[in-house]
Protein backbone atom coordinates (compact mmCIF):
# COMPACT_ATOMS: atom_id res chain seq x y z
CA UNK A 1 0.00 0.00 0.00
CA UNK A 2 1.17 3.49 -0.78
CA UNK A 3 1.99 5.59 2.24
CA UNK A 4 0.37 8.98 2.32
CA UNK A 5 2.67 11.84 3.07
CA UNK A 6 2.46 15.54 3.57
CA UNK A 7 5.55 17.45 4.34
CA UNK A 8 5.92 20.97 5.63
CA UNK A 9 7.44 23.03 8.36
CA UNK A 10 4.63 22.72 10.89
CA UNK A 11 4.39 18.96 10.85
CA UNK A 12 7.51 17.94 9.07
CA UNK A 13 6.32 14.50 8.15
CA UNK A 14 3.02 12.81 8.79
CA UNK A 15 2.62 9.28 7.63
CA UNK A 16 -0.47 7.11 7.36
CA UNK A 17 -3.40 8.69 9.22
CA UNK A 18 -2.79 11.93 7.53
CA UNK A 19 -3.82 14.81 9.71
CA UNK A 20 -2.25 17.42 7.51
CA UNK A 21 -4.47 16.33 4.66
CA UNK A 22 -7.55 16.74 6.81
CA UNK A 23 -6.34 20.00 8.29
CA UNK A 24 -3.76 21.46 5.94
CA UNK A 25 -2.23 24.66 7.23
CA UNK A 26 -3.25 27.23 4.64
CA UNK A 27 -0.29 29.25 3.39
CA UNK A 28 0.09 32.16 1.01
CA UNK A 29 2.40 30.14 -1.19
CA UNK A 30 2.97 26.50 -1.98
CA UNK A 31 4.80 24.00 -4.14
CA UNK A 32 2.65 21.42 -5.85
CA UNK A 33 4.52 18.23 -6.61
CA UNK A 34 3.02 15.85 -9.13
CA UNK A 35 3.78 12.29 -8.08
CA UNK A 36 2.05 10.84 -11.16
CA UNK A 37 4.64 12.67 -13.24
CA UNK A 38 7.41 11.25 -11.05
CA UNK A 39 6.05 7.76 -11.80
CA UNK A 40 6.04 8.54 -15.52
CA UNK A 41 9.57 9.95 -15.44
CA UNK A 42 10.79 6.89 -13.56
CA UNK A 43 9.17 4.44 -15.94
CA UNK A 44 10.45 6.27 -19.04
CA UNK A 45 13.98 6.18 -17.61
CA UNK A 46 13.52 2.54 -16.55
CA UNK A 47 12.70 1.73 -20.20
CA UNK A 48 15.85 3.48 -21.46
CA UNK A 49 17.95 1.01 -19.52
CA UNK A 50 18.29 -2.74 -19.91
CA UNK A 51 15.99 -4.54 -17.48
CA UNK A 52 18.80 -6.25 -15.56
CA UNK A 53 20.54 -2.94 -14.81
CA UNK A 54 19.67 -1.43 -11.44
CA UNK A 55 18.51 2.13 -10.91
CA UNK A 56 19.79 4.26 -8.08
CA UNK A 57 17.58 7.32 -7.56
CA UNK A 58 19.73 10.16 -6.26
CA UNK A 59 17.86 11.86 -3.40
CA UNK A 60 20.56 14.21 -2.10
CA UNK A 61 19.75 17.83 -1.33
CA UNK A 62 16.23 17.00 -0.12
CA UNK A 63 15.61 15.15 -3.41
CA UNK A 64 16.81 18.19 -5.36
CA UNK A 65 14.39 20.29 -3.29
CA UNK A 66 11.36 18.05 -3.85
CA UNK A 67 11.24 16.64 -0.31
CA UNK A 68 13.36 13.54 0.23
CA UNK A 69 11.05 11.25 2.20
CA UNK A 70 7.86 11.59 0.13
CA UNK A 71 9.86 11.19 -3.08
CA UNK A 72 11.57 8.12 -1.60
CA UNK A 73 8.22 6.54 -0.70
CA UNK A 74 6.93 7.06 -4.21
CA UNK A 75 10.07 5.65 -5.82
CA UNK A 76 10.13 2.67 -3.48
CA UNK A 77 6.59 2.00 -4.67
CA UNK A 78 7.88 2.24 -8.30
CA UNK A 79 10.37 -0.54 -7.44
CA UNK A 80 13.47 1.64 -7.55
CA UNK A 81 16.46 -0.53 -6.56
CA UNK A 82 18.67 1.79 -4.53
CA UNK A 83 18.79 5.33 -3.18
CA UNK A 84 21.83 7.60 -3.34
CA UNK A 85 22.52 10.47 -0.93
CA UNK A 86 25.65 12.35 0.13
CA UNK A 87 25.24 12.98 3.86
CA UNK A 88 24.83 10.57 6.73
CA UNK A 89 21.90 12.59 8.00
CA UNK A 90 20.08 12.08 4.69
CA UNK A 91 20.70 8.34 4.77
CA UNK A 92 19.70 8.15 8.42
CA UNK A 93 16.47 10.09 7.81
CA UNK A 94 15.52 7.64 5.07
CA UNK A 95 16.11 4.67 7.39
CA UNK A 96 14.17 6.41 10.15
CA UNK A 97 11.30 6.91 7.72
CA UNK A 98 11.21 3.16 7.14
CA UNK A 99 13.04 2.87 3.84
CA UNK A 100 14.37 -0.68 3.50
CA UNK A 101 16.17 -0.68 0.13
CA UNK A 102 19.95 -0.13 -0.07
CA UNK A 103 21.11 3.44 0.56
CA UNK A 104 24.48 4.42 -0.84
CA UNK A 105 26.32 7.42 0.51
CA UNK A 106 28.07 9.00 -2.47
CA UNK A 107 30.48 11.29 -0.59
CA UNK A 108 33.24 10.54 1.91
CA UNK A 109 32.39 9.87 5.53
CA UNK A 110 34.58 10.62 8.52
CA UNK A 111 35.73 7.93 10.99
CA UNK A 112 33.32 9.18 13.68
CA UNK A 113 30.41 8.19 11.44
CA UNK A 114 31.43 4.56 11.01
CA UNK A 115 29.24 3.09 13.76
CA UNK A 116 26.18 5.01 12.53
CA UNK A 117 26.79 3.63 9.08
CA UNK A 118 27.03 0.08 10.38
CA UNK A 119 24.08 0.20 12.72
CA UNK A 120 21.77 1.68 10.09
CA UNK A 121 22.91 -0.57 7.23
CA UNK A 122 24.08 2.27 5.06
CA UNK A 123 26.51 1.61 2.20
CA UNK A 124 29.25 4.25 2.12
CA UNK A 125 31.58 5.11 -0.72
CA UNK A 126 35.18 4.59 0.29
CA UNK A 127 38.47 5.91 -1.06
CA UNK A 128 40.53 5.77 2.11
CA UNK A 129 41.94 2.96 4.22
CA UNK A 130 41.39 4.73 7.51
CA UNK A 131 37.65 4.61 6.84
CA UNK A 132 37.79 0.93 5.91
CA UNK A 133 39.52 0.25 9.21
CA UNK A 134 36.91 2.21 11.19
CA UNK A 135 34.08 0.41 9.38
CA UNK A 136 35.68 -2.98 9.94
CA UNK A 137 35.99 -2.28 13.63
CA UNK A 138 32.40 -1.13 14.10
CA UNK A 139 31.11 -3.99 11.96
CA UNK A 140 32.97 -6.49 14.06
CA UNK A 141 31.51 -4.93 17.22
CA UNK A 142 27.99 -5.24 15.77
CA UNK A 143 28.65 -8.65 14.31
CA UNK A 144 27.78 -7.40 10.85
CA UNK A 145 29.30 -7.14 7.41
CA UNK A 146 29.43 -3.59 5.99
CA UNK A 147 29.01 -3.19 2.25
CA UNK A 148 31.06 -0.47 0.63
CA UNK A 149 31.45 0.98 -2.86
CA UNK A 150 34.98 1.92 -3.85
CA UNK A 151 35.27 5.07 -5.88
CA UNK A 152 37.82 5.40 -8.68
CA UNK A 153 39.05 8.79 -9.85
CA UNK A 154 39.03 8.67 -13.65
CA UNK A 155 39.40 12.41 -14.19
CA UNK A 156 36.95 14.42 -12.11
CA UNK A 157 39.77 14.83 -9.58
CA UNK A 158 37.43 15.16 -6.65
CA UNK A 159 37.12 11.95 -4.64
CA UNK A 160 38.26 8.41 -5.41
CA UNK A 161 41.43 6.36 -5.47
CA UNK A 162 43.72 6.46 -8.47
CA UNK A 163 43.07 3.78 -11.13
CA UNK A 164 46.50 2.19 -10.72
CA UNK A 165 45.89 1.66 -7.00
CA UNK A 166 42.51 -0.05 -7.45
CA UNK A 167 43.63 -3.67 -7.48
CA UNK A 168 45.89 -3.33 -4.46
CA UNK A 169 43.35 -1.32 -2.52
CA UNK A 170 40.59 -3.87 -3.01
CA UNK A 171 42.91 -6.82 -2.44
CA UNK A 172 44.04 -5.28 0.83
CA UNK A 173 40.45 -4.79 1.99
CA UNK A 174 39.75 -8.48 1.43
CA UNK A 175 42.97 -9.57 3.11
CA UNK A 176 42.91 -7.25 6.08
CA UNK A 177 39.32 -6.27 6.85
CA UNK A 178 37.06 -9.33 7.02
CA UNK A 179 33.95 -7.41 8.08
CA UNK A 180 33.99 -5.13 5.04
CA UNK A 181 32.65 -6.27 1.68
CA UNK A 182 33.37 -4.41 -1.53
CA UNK A 183 29.93 -4.66 -3.09
CA UNK A 184 30.41 -1.92 -5.66
CA UNK A 185 32.92 0.08 -7.63
CA UNK A 186 32.19 3.33 -9.40
CA UNK A 187 33.41 6.49 -11.00
CA UNK A 188 31.87 9.86 -11.89
CA UNK A 189 32.12 11.88 -15.10
CA UNK A 190 33.70 15.27 -15.26
CA UNK A 191 31.65 16.88 -18.04
CA UNK A 192 29.48 14.23 -19.68
CA UNK A 193 27.07 16.76 -21.22
CA UNK A 194 29.65 18.68 -23.18
CA UNK A 195 32.94 16.81 -23.48
CA UNK A 196 32.51 13.55 -25.36
CA UNK A 197 36.22 12.86 -25.83
CA UNK A 198 37.01 13.20 -22.16
CA UNK A 199 33.97 11.15 -21.13
CA UNK A 200 35.03 8.32 -23.42
CA UNK A 201 38.52 8.48 -21.94
CA UNK A 202 36.99 8.16 -18.49
CA UNK A 203 34.91 5.16 -19.59
CA UNK A 204 38.01 3.49 -21.06
CA UNK A 205 39.98 4.13 -17.91
CA UNK A 206 37.19 2.63 -15.78
CA UNK A 207 36.95 -0.39 -18.12
CA UNK A 208 40.66 -1.00 -17.68
CA UNK A 209 40.27 -0.99 -13.91
CA UNK A 210 37.38 -3.45 -14.18
CA UNK A 211 39.37 -5.73 -16.48
CA UNK A 212 42.32 -5.81 -14.13
CA UNK A 213 40.03 -6.61 -11.22
CA UNK A 214 38.31 -9.34 -13.20
CA UNK A 215 41.64 -10.98 -13.92
CA UNK A 216 42.37 -11.11 -10.21
CA UNK A 217 38.85 -12.35 -9.53
CA UNK A 218 38.22 -9.19 -7.52
CA UNK A 219 35.59 -7.40 -9.58
CA UNK A 220 32.85 -6.15 -7.24
CA UNK A 221 29.28 -7.14 -8.11
CA UNK A 222 27.99 -3.65 -8.91
CA UNK A 223 29.95 -1.32 -11.21
CA UNK A 224 28.43 2.07 -11.99
CA UNK A 225 29.36 5.35 -13.64
CA UNK A 226 26.43 7.11 -15.30
CA UNK A 227 24.54 10.03 -13.84
CA UNK A 228 21.73 11.63 -15.83
CA UNK A 229 23.89 12.66 -18.79
CA UNK A 230 25.58 9.25 -18.87
CA UNK A 231 22.18 7.56 -18.86
CA UNK A 232 21.03 9.57 -21.86
CA UNK A 233 24.25 9.85 -23.86
CA UNK A 234 26.52 6.88 -23.04
CA UNK A 235 24.71 3.53 -22.92
CA UNK A 236 28.12 1.84 -22.70
CA UNK A 237 28.50 3.47 -19.27
CA UNK A 238 25.41 1.84 -17.75
CA UNK A 239 27.33 -1.21 -16.38
CA UNK A 240 25.32 -2.82 -13.55
CA UNK A 241 23.59 0.28 -12.19
CA UNK A 242 22.89 3.90 -13.16
CA UNK A 243 22.63 6.88 -10.82
CA UNK A 244 19.65 8.93 -11.79
CA UNK A 245 19.46 12.46 -10.41
CA UNK A 246 18.24 15.53 -12.20
CA UNK A 247 16.32 13.90 -15.08
CA UNK A 248 14.18 12.00 -12.60
CA UNK A 249 12.82 15.39 -11.56
CA UNK A 250 12.31 16.42 -15.19
CA UNK A 251 15.06 19.05 -14.97
CA UNK A 252 18.31 19.63 -16.80
CA UNK A 253 21.82 20.79 -15.96
CA UNK A 254 21.97 22.40 -19.37
CA UNK A 255 20.49 25.82 -19.68
CA UNK A 256 17.05 25.09 -21.00
CA UNK A 257 18.05 23.16 -24.08
CA UNK A 258 15.37 20.56 -24.31
CA UNK A 259 16.83 17.17 -24.78
CA UNK A 260 15.07 15.22 -22.12
CA UNK A 261 13.40 12.01 -23.34
CA UNK A 262 9.84 12.42 -24.60
CA UNK A 263 7.37 12.58 -21.75
CA UNK A 264 9.91 13.40 -19.01
CA UNK A 265 8.64 16.59 -17.38
CA UNK A 266 9.15 18.64 -14.21
CA UNK A 267 7.07 17.74 -11.16
CA UNK A 268 6.83 21.15 -9.59
CA UNK A 269 4.54 24.13 -9.77
CA UNK A 270 5.54 26.98 -7.46
CA UNK A 271 2.68 29.30 -6.61
CA UNK A 272 2.12 32.43 -4.57
CA UNK A 273 -0.83 34.68 -3.90
CA UNK A 274 -1.30 38.35 -4.58
CA UNK A 275 -1.35 39.89 -1.11
CA UNK A 276 -1.79 43.51 -2.19
CA UNK A 277 -2.68 45.50 -5.28
CA UNK A 278 -1.90 49.21 -5.34
CA UNK A 279 -1.05 52.10 -7.62
CA UNK A 280 2.31 53.80 -7.27
CA UNK A 281 2.29 57.40 -8.43
CA UNK A 282 4.67 58.64 -11.10
CA UNK A 283 8.04 59.49 -9.54
CA UNK A 284 7.47 57.46 -6.38
CA UNK A 285 9.38 54.32 -5.45
CA UNK A 286 7.88 50.90 -4.78
CA UNK A 287 9.51 48.72 -2.14
CA UNK A 288 12.98 49.24 -0.63
CA UNK A 289 15.50 51.59 -2.14
CA UNK A 290 15.23 52.98 -5.60
CA UNK A 291 15.27 49.74 -7.56
CA UNK A 292 11.78 50.63 -8.77
CA UNK A 293 10.81 54.22 -9.56
CA UNK A 294 7.43 54.56 -11.31
CA UNK A 295 7.81 56.39 -14.65
CA UNK A 296 4.03 56.86 -14.74
CA UNK A 297 1.23 55.89 -12.38
CA UNK A 298 1.80 52.16 -12.15
CA UNK A 299 -0.45 49.42 -10.86
CA UNK A 300 1.56 46.82 -8.97
CA UNK A 301 0.81 43.57 -7.19
CA UNK A 302 2.81 42.16 -4.28
CA UNK A 303 3.13 38.39 -4.21
CA UNK A 304 3.97 36.62 -0.98
CA UNK A 305 7.04 34.75 -2.12
CA UNK A 306 10.42 36.33 -1.65
CA UNK A 307 14.02 35.39 -1.19
CA UNK A 308 13.15 34.12 2.27
CA UNK A 309 11.24 31.47 0.37
CA UNK A 310 13.92 30.75 -2.19
CA UNK A 311 13.37 33.35 -4.88
CA UNK A 312 16.59 35.05 -5.93
CA UNK A 313 17.10 38.72 -6.71
CA UNK A 314 17.04 39.01 -10.47
CA UNK A 315 13.89 36.99 -11.01
CA UNK A 316 12.34 38.49 -14.12
CA UNK A 317 8.78 37.37 -14.71
CA UNK A 318 5.89 35.52 -13.13
CA UNK A 319 2.48 34.45 -14.41
CA UNK A 320 -0.76 36.11 -13.38
CA UNK A 321 -4.08 35.55 -15.17
CA UNK A 322 -2.30 33.40 -17.77
CA UNK A 323 0.04 36.26 -18.74
CA UNK A 324 3.68 37.13 -18.08
CA UNK A 325 4.22 40.14 -15.84
CA UNK A 326 7.58 41.75 -15.02
CA UNK A 327 9.02 41.64 -11.50
CA UNK A 328 10.09 45.17 -10.52
CA UNK A 329 11.32 44.77 -6.94
CA UNK A 330 12.15 42.08 -4.39
CA UNK A 331 12.25 41.77 -0.68
CA UNK A 332 12.72 39.08 1.92
CA UNK A 333 9.14 37.91 1.87
CA UNK A 334 7.75 38.96 -1.45
CA UNK A 335 8.13 40.31 -4.94
CA UNK A 336 6.52 43.32 -6.57
CA UNK A 337 5.23 42.93 -10.12
CA UNK A 338 4.00 45.53 -12.58
CA UNK A 339 0.46 44.63 -13.63
CA UNK A 340 -0.34 47.81 -15.57
CA UNK A 341 -0.49 45.97 -18.88
CA UNK A 342 -2.37 42.96 -17.61
CA UNK A 343 -5.54 42.14 -19.51
CA UNK A 344 -8.65 40.96 -17.72
CA UNK A 345 -9.73 41.25 -14.13
CA UNK A 346 -7.53 40.33 -11.24
CA UNK A 347 -7.96 40.89 -7.54
CA UNK A 348 -6.14 40.52 -4.28
CA UNK A 349 -5.59 36.91 -3.17
CA UNK A 350 -5.58 35.63 -6.74
CA UNK A 351 -2.95 33.05 -7.57
CA UNK A 352 0.38 33.77 -9.30
CA UNK A 353 2.56 31.06 -10.77
CA UNK A 354 6.27 31.55 -10.24
CA UNK A 355 7.39 28.31 -11.88
CA UNK A 356 5.14 26.13 -13.97
CA UNK A 357 2.16 26.60 -16.26
CA UNK A 358 -0.82 28.89 -16.16
CA UNK A 359 -3.12 28.78 -19.16
CA UNK A 360 -0.95 28.52 -22.24
CA UNK A 361 2.05 30.21 -20.59
CA UNK A 362 4.90 28.39 -18.89
CA UNK A 363 7.97 29.47 -16.97
CA UNK A 364 10.47 26.64 -16.47
CA UNK A 365 13.14 26.31 -13.80
CA UNK A 366 15.70 26.43 -16.58
CA UNK A 367 14.37 29.78 -17.83
CA UNK A 368 14.03 31.29 -14.39
CA UNK A 369 17.48 30.09 -13.31
CA UNK A 370 19.07 31.72 -16.31
CA UNK A 371 17.81 35.12 -15.09
CA UNK A 372 19.95 34.70 -12.00
CA UNK A 373 22.98 32.96 -13.59
CA UNK A 374 22.14 29.75 -11.84
CA UNK A 375 20.89 26.24 -12.59
CA UNK A 376 17.55 24.57 -12.07
CA UNK A 377 18.85 22.18 -9.42
CA UNK A 378 20.55 24.98 -7.50
CA UNK A 379 17.50 27.25 -7.56
CA UNK A 380 14.95 24.65 -6.55
CA UNK A 381 17.03 23.67 -3.53
CA UNK A 382 16.89 27.22 -2.26
CA UNK A 383 13.17 27.06 -1.59
CA UNK A 384 12.88 27.03 2.17
CA UNK A 385 10.87 24.78 4.40
CA UNK A 386 8.25 27.39 5.14
CA UNK A 387 6.83 26.92 1.65
CA UNK A 388 4.51 23.94 2.10
CA UNK A 389 4.87 21.06 -0.33
CA UNK A 390 1.65 19.51 -1.54
CA UNK A 391 1.97 16.13 -3.17
CA UNK A 392 -0.75 14.97 -5.50
CA UNK A 393 -1.65 12.32 -8.05
CA UNK A 394 -3.45 13.30 -11.22
C1 LIG B 1 24.67 14.03 -7.70
C2 LIG B 1 25.29 12.81 -8.21
C3 LIG B 1 24.66 12.07 -9.23
C4 LIG B 1 23.40 12.52 -9.92
O1 LIG B 1 23.73 13.43 -10.93
P1 LIG B 1 22.65 13.97 -11.97
O2 LIG B 1 23.46 14.58 -13.02
O3 LIG B 1 21.78 14.91 -11.24
O4 LIG B 1 21.90 12.76 -12.45
C5 LIG B 1 25.27 10.90 -9.63
N1 LIG B 1 26.43 10.48 -9.08
C6 LIG B 1 27.06 11.17 -8.10
C7 LIG B 1 28.34 10.65 -7.54
C8 LIG B 1 26.51 12.36 -7.64
O5 LIG B 1 27.15 13.06 -6.68
TrEMBL record:
The modification N6-(pyridoxal phosphate)lysine is found at residue 60. Residues 267-392 form the Alanine racemase C-terminal domain. Its cofactor is pyridoxal 5'-phosphate. The active site is at 60 (proton acceptor), 288 (proton acceptor). Keywords: Isomerase, Pyridoxal phosphate. Its EC number is 5.1.1.1. It holds the Pfam family Ala_racemase_N. It comes from the Bacteria. It catalyses: L-alanine = D-alanine. It is an enzyme of class 5 (isomerase). One of its GO terms (molecular function) is alanine racemase activity. PROSITE patterns: ALANINE_RACEMASE. Pathway: Amino-acid biosynthesis; D-alanine biosynthesis; D-alanine from L-alanine: step 1/1. Substrate binds at residues 158, 332. InterPro entries: Ala_racemase, Ala_racemase/Decarboxylase_C, Ala_racemase_C, Ala_racemase_N, Ala_racemase_pyridoxalP-BS, PLP-binding_barrel. Belongs to the alanine racemase family. Catalyzes the interconversion of L-alanine and D-alanine. May also act on other amino acids. PANTHER family: ALANINE RACEMASE (PTHR30511), ALANINE RACEMASE, CATABOLIC-RELATED (PTHR30511:SF0). NCBIfam families: alr (TIGR00492). This is Alanine racemase. It comes from Clostridium tanneri. The gene is alr.
Amino acid sequence: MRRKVTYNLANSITIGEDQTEKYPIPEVNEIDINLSQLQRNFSIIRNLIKPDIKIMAVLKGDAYGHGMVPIAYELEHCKCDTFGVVRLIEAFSLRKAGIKIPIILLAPIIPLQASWITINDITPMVDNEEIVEALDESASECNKIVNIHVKINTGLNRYGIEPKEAVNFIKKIYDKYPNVKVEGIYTHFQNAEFDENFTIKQIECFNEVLNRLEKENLRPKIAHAAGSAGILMYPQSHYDMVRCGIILYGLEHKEGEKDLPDGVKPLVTLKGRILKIKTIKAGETGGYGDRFIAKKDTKVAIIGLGYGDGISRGWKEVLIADQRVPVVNYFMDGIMVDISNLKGKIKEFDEAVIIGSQGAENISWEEASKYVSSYADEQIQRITERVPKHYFYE
